[in-house]
Design a protein that fits this description.
Length: 179
């Protein structure tokens, strides 16, 4: 699983534990009816990378958006602000997202009343910056069994002649490694 997915899942898990954010999704979902409101949507955006401590790891910075949707009525701003307060409080408790990230910082908010207008909803996008260390996954097989064959230089002769392997397998072993 990619680290961006782990980040989205962890943020969703932290938010969905709150009763007011029980409808929390990952992915680019928009409300289709007012029955689903209010709800939160966790998305990742642009990402940058720079060399980290060695040639095999990068310090990556990804934008994380928590989009809050609520019914577009006379209390829309108040409802979105109350939801935002809850999100900001919950996400400030764990700046490493359970050890996934190096930092997780709030960067701002952007209201939007146009994108969900077809269902009379408004939204507020909370923007976070998440830094994490990425390293490539090891490109090796699941090493479970080793076979060893030994060809000695004519062990039956004393003194050994010739002094190079004679092409005859003198010992063999099959080793099964436990995981």
């Amino acid at each position: 699983m990619h680290t961006r997915q782990k980040i989205r899942d962890q943020v969703r898990q932290l938010l969905a534990a709150h009763p007011g954010l029980a409808n929390c999704y990952t992915g680019r979902v928009q409300p289709t009816s007012t029955d689903k409101l209010p709800f939160a949507n966790v998305e990742t955006g642009g990402e940058t990378a720079e060399r980290h401590s060695d040639q095999f790891s990068e310090l990556r910075t990804v934008r994380v958006y928590v989009r809050l949707y609520a019914s577009a009525d006379e209390h829309l701003d108040d409802t979105l602000d109350a939801l935002a307060e809850t999100v900001e409080s919950l996400l400030s408790l764990d700046q490493t997202l359970g050890g996934i990230s190096e930092t997780f910082e709030y960067k701002g908010a952007d209201p939007d009343t146009a994108s969900a207008a077809n269902v009379e909803a408004g939204s507020l996008a909370l923007e976070y910056e998440c830094k994490y260390v990425w390293s490539p996954a090891p490109a090796v097989d699941d090493f479970g069994t080793a076979v060893v064959e030994i060809d000695m230089s004519s062990p039956r002769n004393d003194p050994p002649a010739p002094t190079v392997p004679d092409g005859q397998i003198d010992a063999a072993a099959r080793i099964t490694l436990s995981s």
